[in-house]
Amino acid sequence: MPNRLRFAPSPTGDLHVGNARTAVFNWLYVKKYGGSLVIRIEDTDRVRSDSRFEDLIFRDLKWLGLDWQEGPDCGGPFGPYRQSSRTAIYARQAEVLLEKESAYRCFCSEEELGRRAREARQAGLAWKYPGTCRRLSPGEVARRLADAHPSVVRLKVRSGKVVFRDLVHGGMQFDSAVLGDPILVRSNGMPTYNYAAVVDDGLMKISHVIRGDDHLSNTPRQVLIYEALGWPLPVFAHLSTILGPDRARLSKRHGATSLKHFREQGVLWEALLNYLTLLGWAPGEDQDEILSPEELAAGFDIERVSKSPAIFDAQKLYFFNRHYLKECEPSRTVEWASDHLRQEGLLGEVDSRVRQWVGLVVEAFLPGLDHLSQLSGKVPQLWDFEAERAVQDEGVRQVLSSPGAARVVEELNNQLSLGKRDVVREWPSIVRSVKAGSGQKGRKLFHPIRVALTGRDSGPELDKLVSIFEGGSQLELPRRIKDCRARSSEFHNAMRSQELSRIH
After folding, report:
1. Which of 322, 344, 359, 387 has CB atoms 3.0–4.6 Å from 494's, for a disulfide?
2. Which range of residues forms the domain containing residue 108?
3. Which pTM does this prediction carry?
Protein backbone atom coordinates (compact mmCIF):
# COMPACT_ATOMS: atom_id res chain seq x y z
CA MET A 1 0.00 0.00 0.00
CA PRO A 2 1.50 3.37 -1.00
CA ASN A 3 2.11 5.99 1.66
CA ARG A 4 -0.82 8.38 1.90
CA LEU A 5 -0.78 11.05 4.59
CA ARG A 6 -3.11 13.93 5.31
CA PHE A 7 -3.17 17.31 6.96
CA ALA A 8 -6.71 18.24 8.00
CA PRO A 9 -7.03 21.78 9.38
CA SER A 10 -10.27 23.49 10.42
CA PRO A 11 -10.83 26.91 8.78
CA THR A 12 -11.79 28.61 12.04
CA GLY A 13 -8.79 30.92 12.49
CA ASP A 14 -5.19 31.60 11.54
CA LEU A 15 -2.81 28.67 11.12
CA HIS A 16 -0.58 28.55 14.21
CA VAL A 17 2.79 26.92 14.78
CA GLY A 18 1.29 23.81 16.41
CA ASN A 19 -0.80 22.90 13.37
CA ALA A 20 1.95 24.06 11.03
CA ARG A 21 4.42 21.69 12.71
CA THR A 22 1.95 18.85 12.09
CA ALA A 23 1.74 19.80 8.42
CA VAL A 24 5.53 19.95 8.19
CA PHE A 25 6.02 16.47 9.69
CA ASN A 26 3.46 14.96 7.29
CA TRP A 27 5.18 16.71 4.39
CA LEU A 28 8.64 15.54 5.49
CA TYR A 29 7.43 11.95 5.75
CA VAL A 30 6.13 12.02 2.18
CA LYS A 31 9.34 13.67 0.96
CA LYS A 32 11.46 11.04 2.73
CA TYR A 33 9.51 7.88 1.93
CA GLY A 34 7.44 8.86 -1.09
CA GLY A 35 3.67 8.82 -1.52
CA SER A 36 0.98 11.49 -1.47
CA LEU A 37 0.03 14.28 0.91
CA VAL A 38 -3.67 15.10 1.07
CA ILE A 39 -5.05 18.41 2.33
CA ARG A 40 -8.55 17.98 3.77
CA ILE A 41 -10.59 20.87 5.16
CA GLU A 42 -12.57 19.87 8.27
CA ASP A 43 -15.30 22.50 8.16
CA THR A 44 -18.27 20.76 9.78
CA ASP A 45 -18.35 23.53 12.40
CA ARG A 46 -20.45 25.78 10.20
CA VAL A 47 -20.71 28.53 12.80
CA ARG A 48 -16.96 29.11 13.15
CA SER A 49 -15.74 28.01 9.72
CA ASP A 50 -14.95 30.77 7.24
CA SER A 51 -13.70 30.53 3.66
CA ARG A 52 -11.24 33.39 4.23
CA PHE A 53 -9.44 31.25 6.81
CA GLU A 54 -9.32 28.39 4.31
CA ASP A 55 -7.70 30.73 1.79
CA LEU A 56 -5.21 31.85 4.43
CA ILE A 57 -4.36 28.23 5.32
CA PHE A 58 -3.44 27.49 1.71
CA ARG A 59 -1.45 30.71 1.44
CA ASP A 60 0.47 29.94 4.64
CA LEU A 61 1.25 26.36 3.64
CA LYS A 62 2.53 27.43 0.23
CA TRP A 63 4.57 30.24 1.81
CA LEU A 64 6.12 27.66 4.16
CA GLY A 65 7.39 25.77 1.12
CA LEU A 66 4.98 22.84 1.37
CA ASP A 67 3.30 21.13 -1.56
CA TRP A 68 0.64 18.42 -1.77
CA GLN A 69 -0.87 16.11 -4.32
CA GLU A 70 -4.60 16.19 -3.44
CA GLY A 71 -6.92 18.76 -1.91
CA PRO A 72 -9.78 21.19 -2.51
CA ASP A 73 -7.53 23.40 -4.62
CA CYS A 74 -6.14 20.68 -6.90
CA GLY A 75 -8.67 17.84 -6.75
CA GLY A 76 -7.83 14.15 -6.66
CA PRO A 77 -9.40 10.69 -6.91
CA PHE A 78 -10.96 10.63 -3.41
CA GLY A 79 -12.76 13.96 -3.24
CA PRO A 80 -14.52 16.03 -2.29
CA TYR A 81 -11.89 17.30 0.14
CA ARG A 82 -14.11 19.52 2.29
CA GLN A 83 -16.10 17.75 4.97
CA SER A 84 -19.07 20.07 4.42
CA SER A 85 -19.37 18.51 0.93
CA ARG A 86 -19.27 14.93 2.24
CA THR A 87 -22.41 14.75 4.43
CA ALA A 88 -24.08 12.24 2.09
CA ILE A 89 -21.02 9.99 2.40
CA TYR A 90 -21.21 10.09 6.20
CA ALA A 91 -24.92 9.30 6.08
CA ARG A 92 -24.34 6.25 3.83
CA GLN A 93 -21.66 4.84 6.11
CA ALA A 94 -23.90 5.41 9.14
CA GLU A 95 -26.61 3.35 7.45
CA VAL A 96 -24.07 0.59 6.86
CA LEU A 97 -23.25 0.55 10.58
CA LEU A 98 -26.94 0.54 11.53
CA GLU A 99 -27.64 -2.37 9.19
CA LYS A 100 -24.72 -4.31 10.70
CA GLU A 101 -26.08 -3.47 14.16
CA SER A 102 -22.69 -1.94 14.97
CA ALA A 103 -24.52 1.31 15.69
CA TYR A 104 -27.96 2.28 16.92
CA ARG A 105 -30.32 5.23 17.08
CA CYS A 106 -30.48 7.11 20.36
CA PHE A 107 -33.51 9.26 21.21
CA CYS A 108 -32.32 10.59 24.58
CA SER A 109 -32.61 14.36 24.72
CA GLU A 110 -29.62 16.60 25.39
CA GLU A 111 -31.46 18.02 28.40
CA GLU A 112 -31.96 14.60 29.92
CA LEU A 113 -28.35 13.54 29.35
CA GLY A 114 -27.09 16.86 30.69
CA ARG A 115 -29.12 16.41 33.87
CA ARG A 116 -27.74 12.91 34.42
CA ALA A 117 -24.18 14.10 33.86
CA ARG A 118 -24.60 16.93 36.40
CA GLU A 119 -26.03 14.55 38.97
CA ALA A 120 -23.08 12.19 38.49
CA ARG A 121 -20.57 15.02 38.89
CA GLN A 122 -22.30 16.24 42.04
CA ALA A 123 -22.03 12.71 43.43
CA GLY A 124 -18.34 12.62 42.54
CA LEU A 125 -18.84 9.93 39.91
CA ALA A 126 -17.51 9.61 36.39
CA TRP A 127 -20.34 9.64 33.87
CA LYS A 128 -20.74 8.05 30.49
CA TYR A 129 -23.78 7.37 28.39
CA PRO A 130 -25.40 4.25 29.93
CA GLY A 131 -26.57 2.74 26.65
CA THR A 132 -30.25 3.38 27.32
CA CYS A 133 -31.35 3.15 23.69
CA ARG A 134 -29.25 0.08 22.96
CA ARG A 135 -32.13 -1.95 24.32
CA LEU A 136 -34.86 -0.49 22.09
CA SER A 137 -36.55 -3.01 19.82
CA PRO A 138 -36.54 -2.47 16.04
CA GLY A 139 -40.27 -1.83 16.22
CA GLU A 140 -39.87 0.86 18.88
CA VAL A 141 -37.12 2.53 16.86
CA ALA A 142 -39.33 2.51 13.75
CA ARG A 143 -42.26 3.95 15.71
CA ARG A 144 -40.21 6.82 17.12
CA LEU A 145 -38.74 7.61 13.74
CA ALA A 146 -42.23 7.61 12.22
CA ASP A 147 -43.29 10.06 14.94
CA ALA A 148 -40.34 12.31 13.96
CA HIS A 149 -38.56 11.98 17.30
CA PRO A 150 -35.06 13.56 17.02
CA SER A 151 -32.31 10.99 17.20
CA VAL A 152 -28.55 10.61 16.97
CA VAL A 153 -26.56 7.62 15.75
CA ARG A 154 -24.28 6.05 18.37
CA LEU A 155 -21.54 3.47 17.98
CA LYS A 156 -22.14 0.22 19.83
CA VAL A 157 -18.84 -0.06 21.70
CA ARG A 158 -17.64 -3.63 22.17
CA SER A 159 -16.27 -4.86 25.46
CA GLY A 160 -12.58 -5.54 26.06
CA LYS A 161 -9.34 -3.69 25.37
CA VAL A 162 -8.67 -1.27 22.54
CA VAL A 163 -5.07 -1.75 21.40
CA PHE A 164 -3.01 0.09 18.81
CA ARG A 165 0.61 1.05 18.21
CA ASP A 166 1.80 4.63 18.02
CA LEU A 167 5.11 5.45 16.33
CA VAL A 168 5.88 8.09 18.96
CA HIS A 169 4.30 6.67 22.13
CA GLY A 170 4.68 2.95 21.45
CA GLY A 171 2.04 0.35 22.30
CA MET A 172 -1.21 1.87 23.62
CA GLN A 173 -4.06 0.12 25.42
CA PHE A 174 -7.42 1.42 26.65
CA ASP A 175 -10.36 -0.26 28.37
CA SER A 176 -13.49 0.21 26.28
CA ALA A 177 -15.57 0.10 29.46
CA VAL A 178 -14.62 3.73 30.20
CA LEU A 179 -15.53 5.05 26.75
CA GLY A 180 -19.32 4.89 26.53
CA ASP A 181 -21.10 4.74 23.18
CA PRO A 182 -19.93 7.83 21.25
CA ILE A 183 -22.22 9.79 18.93
CA LEU A 184 -21.39 9.34 15.25
CA VAL A 185 -24.07 11.51 13.64
CA ARG A 186 -25.88 14.33 15.42
CA SER A 187 -29.63 14.90 15.24
CA ASN A 188 -29.09 17.60 12.59
CA GLY A 189 -27.35 15.08 10.33
CA MET A 190 -23.83 16.46 10.90
CA PRO A 191 -21.08 13.97 11.76
CA THR A 192 -18.96 14.22 14.88
CA TYR A 193 -15.22 14.76 14.53
CA ASN A 194 -14.18 11.20 15.39
CA TYR A 195 -16.64 9.65 12.97
CA ALA A 196 -15.96 12.00 10.05
CA ALA A 197 -12.19 11.67 10.49
CA VAL A 198 -12.36 7.87 10.31
CA VAL A 199 -14.71 7.82 7.31
CA ASP A 200 -12.54 10.32 5.46
CA ASP A 201 -9.26 8.62 6.32
CA GLY A 202 -10.66 5.20 5.44
CA LEU A 203 -12.20 6.17 2.11
CA MET A 204 -9.21 8.33 1.16
CA LYS A 205 -6.89 5.35 1.82
CA ILE A 206 -4.83 7.26 4.39
CA SER A 207 -1.99 5.00 5.52
CA HIS A 208 -0.45 7.20 8.24
CA VAL A 209 -2.16 9.60 10.64
CA ILE A 210 0.41 12.07 12.02
CA ARG A 211 -1.21 14.64 14.30
CA GLY A 212 -0.94 16.34 17.70
CA ASP A 213 -1.12 14.31 20.89
CA ASP A 214 -4.24 16.22 21.94
CA HIS A 215 -5.93 13.66 19.66
CA LEU A 216 -4.44 10.67 21.45
CA SER A 217 -7.53 10.32 23.65
CA ASN A 218 -9.72 10.29 20.51
CA THR A 219 -7.84 7.39 18.99
CA PRO A 220 -9.49 4.51 20.96
CA ARG A 221 -12.92 5.62 19.75
CA GLN A 222 -11.62 5.95 16.22
CA VAL A 223 -10.06 2.49 16.36
CA LEU A 224 -13.48 1.08 17.35
CA ILE A 225 -15.12 2.88 14.42
CA TYR A 226 -12.51 1.40 12.04
CA GLU A 227 -13.27 -2.04 13.44
CA ALA A 228 -17.03 -1.54 13.08
CA LEU A 229 -16.62 -0.51 9.45
CA GLY A 230 -14.29 -3.43 8.80
CA TRP A 231 -11.43 -1.20 7.64
CA PRO A 232 -7.70 -1.64 8.39
CA LEU A 233 -6.13 0.75 10.86
CA PRO A 234 -3.70 3.39 9.63
CA VAL A 235 -0.35 3.85 11.35
CA PHE A 236 -0.69 6.45 14.12
CA ALA A 237 1.92 8.96 15.28
CA HIS A 238 0.94 11.58 17.85
CA LEU A 239 3.27 14.57 18.12
CA SER A 240 4.05 16.18 21.46
CA THR A 241 2.39 19.34 22.67
CA ILE A 242 4.20 22.63 22.02
CA LEU A 243 4.79 24.72 25.13
CA GLY A 244 5.99 28.26 25.71
CA PRO A 245 9.36 29.08 27.35
CA ASP A 246 7.58 29.00 30.74
CA ARG A 247 6.54 25.39 29.98
CA ALA A 248 2.87 26.37 29.90
CA ARG A 249 0.75 25.41 26.89
CA LEU A 250 1.47 27.82 24.05
CA SER A 251 -1.15 30.59 24.05
CA LYS A 252 -1.69 34.27 23.27
CA ARG A 253 0.14 35.31 26.42
CA HIS A 254 3.34 34.05 24.79
CA GLY A 255 2.81 36.44 21.88
CA ALA A 256 1.49 35.93 18.37
CA THR A 257 2.39 32.52 16.96
CA SER A 258 0.45 32.38 13.71
CA LEU A 259 2.21 31.85 10.40
CA LYS A 260 0.59 35.05 9.16
CA HIS A 261 2.29 36.94 11.99
CA PHE A 262 5.73 35.55 11.21
CA ARG A 263 5.28 36.07 7.47
CA GLU A 264 4.30 39.71 7.99
CA GLN A 265 7.12 40.10 10.48
CA GLY A 266 9.67 39.31 7.80
CA VAL A 267 10.68 35.86 9.00
CA LEU A 268 11.88 33.81 6.04
CA TRP A 269 9.97 30.61 5.34
CA GLU A 270 13.19 28.57 5.33
CA ALA A 271 13.94 29.69 8.89
CA LEU A 272 10.46 28.81 10.17
CA LEU A 273 10.42 25.45 8.36
CA ASN A 274 13.83 24.58 9.79
CA TYR A 275 12.83 25.60 13.31
CA LEU A 276 9.43 23.87 13.29
CA THR A 277 11.08 20.61 12.25
CA LEU A 278 13.28 20.74 15.34
CA LEU A 279 10.29 21.04 17.68
CA GLY A 280 10.24 17.46 18.86
CA TRP A 281 12.72 16.01 16.38
CA ALA A 282 16.50 16.20 16.37
CA PRO A 283 18.91 15.65 13.47
CA GLY A 284 21.68 13.07 13.63
CA GLU A 285 24.74 13.61 15.80
CA ASP A 286 26.84 14.47 12.76
CA GLN A 287 24.40 17.12 11.51
CA ASP A 288 24.10 20.81 12.28
CA GLU A 289 20.75 22.29 13.38
CA ILE A 290 20.59 24.56 10.34
CA LEU A 291 19.46 22.34 7.47
CA SER A 292 17.95 22.96 4.06
CA PRO A 293 14.50 21.52 3.26
CA GLU A 294 16.22 18.77 1.26
CA GLU A 295 18.51 17.90 4.17
CA LEU A 296 15.60 17.92 6.61
CA ALA A 297 13.64 15.50 4.44
CA ALA A 298 16.62 13.21 3.87
CA GLY A 299 17.33 12.92 7.60
CA PHE A 300 13.74 12.82 8.88
CA ASP A 301 12.68 9.77 10.90
CA ILE A 302 9.25 9.80 12.57
CA GLU A 303 10.36 7.17 15.09
CA ARG A 304 13.01 9.61 16.39
CA VAL A 305 10.32 12.12 17.35
CA SER A 306 10.30 12.79 21.07
CA LYS A 307 7.13 12.32 23.11
CA SER A 308 8.30 15.03 25.53
CA PRO A 309 6.72 18.46 25.03
CA ALA A 310 8.54 20.79 22.65
CA ILE A 311 9.41 24.35 23.71
CA PHE A 312 8.66 27.15 21.26
CA ASP A 313 11.16 29.95 21.75
CA ALA A 314 10.78 32.93 19.41
CA GLN A 315 14.36 34.00 20.11
CA LYS A 316 15.63 30.64 18.85
CA LEU A 317 13.51 31.11 15.73
CA TYR A 318 15.09 34.53 15.22
CA PHE A 319 18.53 32.93 15.55
CA PHE A 320 17.64 30.75 12.58
CA ASN A 321 16.18 33.72 10.74
CA ARG A 322 19.34 35.80 11.15
CA HIS A 323 21.28 33.00 9.48
CA TYR A 324 18.86 32.70 6.58
CA LEU A 325 18.66 36.47 6.13
CA LYS A 326 22.43 36.59 5.66
CA GLU A 327 22.29 33.73 3.15
CA CYS A 328 19.21 35.04 1.35
CA GLU A 329 19.30 36.30 -2.21
CA PRO A 330 19.36 40.12 -1.83
CA SER A 331 16.51 40.59 -4.30
CA ARG A 332 14.11 38.85 -1.86
CA THR A 333 14.94 41.06 1.10
CA VAL A 334 14.93 44.17 -1.08
CA GLU A 335 11.48 43.31 -2.43
CA TRP A 336 10.16 42.72 1.10
CA ALA A 337 11.75 45.92 2.42
CA SER A 338 10.43 47.97 -0.52
CA ASP A 339 6.87 46.81 0.15
CA HIS A 340 7.29 47.43 3.88
CA LEU A 341 8.71 50.95 3.50
CA ARG A 342 6.02 51.81 0.97
CA GLN A 343 3.34 50.74 3.46
CA GLU A 344 5.05 52.96 6.04
CA GLY A 345 4.66 55.92 3.67
CA LEU A 346 8.41 56.29 3.19
CA LEU A 347 8.54 55.15 -0.43
CA GLY A 348 6.37 55.96 -3.39
CA GLU A 349 6.69 54.21 -6.72
CA VAL A 350 9.58 51.76 -6.67
CA ASP A 351 11.62 51.98 -9.86
CA SER A 352 15.10 50.60 -10.53
CA ARG A 353 16.86 53.56 -8.85
CA VAL A 354 14.73 53.31 -5.72
CA ARG A 355 15.17 49.54 -5.61
CA GLN A 356 18.94 49.93 -5.86
CA TRP A 357 18.85 52.44 -3.01
CA VAL A 358 16.67 50.15 -0.85
CA GLY A 359 19.33 47.51 -1.46
CA LEU A 360 21.86 49.81 0.22
CA VAL A 361 19.49 50.32 3.16
CA VAL A 362 18.96 46.58 3.61
CA GLU A 363 22.68 45.85 3.34
CA ALA A 364 23.44 48.44 6.03
CA PHE A 365 20.83 47.43 8.59
CA LEU A 366 20.47 43.68 7.96
CA PRO A 367 23.24 42.55 10.36
CA GLY A 368 21.29 44.01 13.30
CA LEU A 369 17.88 42.53 12.44
CA ASP A 370 16.10 39.49 13.90
CA HIS A 371 13.35 39.91 11.31
CA LEU A 372 12.79 42.36 8.47
CA SER A 373 9.93 44.31 10.07
CA GLN A 374 12.48 45.69 12.56
CA LEU A 375 13.48 48.03 9.76
CA SER A 376 10.59 50.19 10.98
CA GLY A 377 12.52 50.96 14.14
CA LYS A 378 15.87 51.36 12.40
CA VAL A 379 15.32 53.48 9.31
CA PRO A 380 13.68 56.59 10.85
CA GLN A 381 17.20 57.95 11.37
CA LEU A 382 17.45 58.18 7.58
CA TRP A 383 14.63 60.69 7.44
CA ASP A 384 14.33 62.13 10.95
CA PHE A 385 17.50 64.16 11.33
CA GLU A 386 16.96 67.09 13.70
CA ALA A 387 20.28 68.53 14.79
CA GLU A 388 18.87 70.68 17.63
CA ARG A 389 17.29 67.58 19.17
CA ALA A 390 20.34 65.40 18.48
CA VAL A 391 22.76 67.61 20.43
CA GLN A 392 20.54 67.22 23.49
CA ASP A 393 20.96 63.44 23.43
CA GLU A 394 23.08 62.19 26.30
CA GLY A 395 25.05 59.78 24.14
CA VAL A 396 25.78 62.46 21.57
CA ARG A 397 26.86 64.94 24.23
CA GLN A 398 29.18 62.35 25.70
CA VAL A 399 30.84 61.88 22.29
CA LEU A 400 31.19 65.65 21.91
CA SER A 401 32.72 65.95 25.38
CA SER A 402 35.74 63.98 24.20
CA PRO A 403 38.85 66.16 23.61
CA GLY A 404 39.04 67.17 19.97
CA ALA A 405 35.49 66.04 19.07
CA ALA A 406 34.24 69.54 18.33
CA ARG A 407 37.25 70.09 16.11
CA VAL A 408 36.38 66.95 14.12
CA VAL A 409 32.86 68.27 13.55
CA GLU A 410 34.20 71.61 12.36
CA GLU A 411 36.68 69.99 10.00
CA LEU A 412 33.99 67.68 8.60
CA ASN A 413 31.75 70.68 7.92
CA ASN A 414 34.62 72.51 6.26
CA GLN A 415 35.43 69.57 4.00
CA LEU A 416 31.81 68.99 2.96
CA SER A 417 31.40 72.71 2.22
CA LEU A 418 34.23 72.79 -0.31
CA GLY A 419 32.24 73.22 -3.50
CA LYS A 420 30.15 70.51 -5.10
CA ARG A 421 31.72 67.18 -4.16
CA ASP A 422 30.94 63.58 -5.02
CA VAL A 423 30.80 62.65 -1.36
CA VAL A 424 30.42 58.91 -1.89
CA ARG A 425 33.39 58.62 -4.24
CA GLU A 426 35.53 61.07 -2.27
CA TRP A 427 34.54 59.84 1.20
CA PRO A 428 37.90 58.17 2.04
CA SER A 429 39.70 61.38 1.01
CA ILE A 430 37.29 63.51 3.07
CA VAL A 431 37.93 61.40 6.17
CA ARG A 432 41.70 61.65 5.70
CA SER A 433 41.43 65.40 5.46
CA VAL A 434 39.30 65.60 8.62
CA LYS A 435 41.84 63.41 10.37
CA ALA A 436 44.71 65.63 9.32
CA GLY A 437 42.91 68.85 10.20
CA SER A 438 41.65 67.69 13.61
CA GLY A 439 44.59 65.61 14.72
CA GLN A 440 42.19 62.83 15.79
CA LYS A 441 42.10 59.17 14.80
CA GLY A 442 40.26 55.94 15.56
CA ARG A 443 37.19 56.25 17.75
CA LYS A 444 37.96 59.89 18.50
CA LEU A 445 37.70 60.60 14.79
CA PHE A 446 34.83 58.38 13.68
CA HIS A 447 32.48 58.84 16.63
CA PRO A 448 32.18 62.63 16.17
CA ILE A 449 31.74 62.13 12.41
CA ARG A 450 28.94 59.65 13.11
CA VAL A 451 27.01 61.93 15.49
CA ALA A 452 27.40 64.86 13.09
CA LEU A 453 25.85 62.91 10.19
CA THR A 454 23.31 60.71 11.97
CA GLY A 455 22.53 62.45 15.28
CA ARG A 456 23.18 59.09 16.97
CA ASP A 457 26.17 57.63 18.76
CA SER A 458 25.82 54.16 17.19
CA GLY A 459 24.48 52.51 14.08
CA PRO A 460 25.45 50.75 10.83
CA GLU A 461 28.80 51.20 9.13
CA LEU A 462 29.34 54.87 8.41
CA ASP A 463 30.49 54.55 4.80
CA LYS A 464 27.28 52.65 4.02
CA LEU A 465 25.17 55.37 5.63
CA VAL A 466 26.98 58.01 3.59
CA SER A 467 25.96 56.20 0.39
CA ILE A 468 22.38 55.98 1.67
CA PHE A 469 22.19 59.69 2.59
CA GLU A 470 23.67 60.85 -0.69
CA GLY A 471 21.65 58.45 -2.84
CA GLY A 472 18.39 59.06 -0.98
CA SER A 473 18.72 62.86 -1.28
CA GLN A 474 18.63 62.50 -5.07
CA LEU A 475 15.41 60.47 -5.14
CA GLU A 476 11.87 61.78 -5.19
CA LEU A 477 10.64 60.21 -1.97
CA PRO A 478 7.47 61.13 -0.03
CA ARG A 479 9.74 62.45 2.72
CA ARG A 480 13.02 64.15 1.90
CA ILE A 481 16.35 62.68 2.98
CA LYS A 482 19.08 65.23 3.77
CA ASP A 483 22.49 64.70 2.23
CA CYS A 484 25.73 64.70 4.20
CA ARG A 485 26.48 68.38 3.59
CA ALA A 486 23.09 69.50 4.95
CA ARG A 487 23.42 67.21 7.96
CA SER A 488 26.93 68.34 8.81
CA SER A 489 26.01 72.01 8.47
CA GLU A 490 22.92 71.71 10.66
CA PHE A 491 24.74 69.75 13.31
CA HIS A 492 27.70 72.15 13.33
CA ASN A 493 25.36 75.11 13.80
CA ALA A 494 23.40 73.35 16.53
CA MET A 495 26.59 72.46 18.33
CA ARG A 496 27.78 76.06 18.20
CA SER A 497 24.41 77.39 19.36
CA GLN A 498 24.59 75.12 22.38
CA GLU A 499 28.22 76.22 22.91
CA LEU A 500 29.23 72.56 22.87
CA SER A 501 32.27 73.52 20.81
CA ARG A 502 33.64 75.20 23.98
CA ILE A 503 33.59 72.01 26.07
CA HIS A 504 37.19 71.48 25.05
Report:
1. 387
2. 87-239
3. 0.91
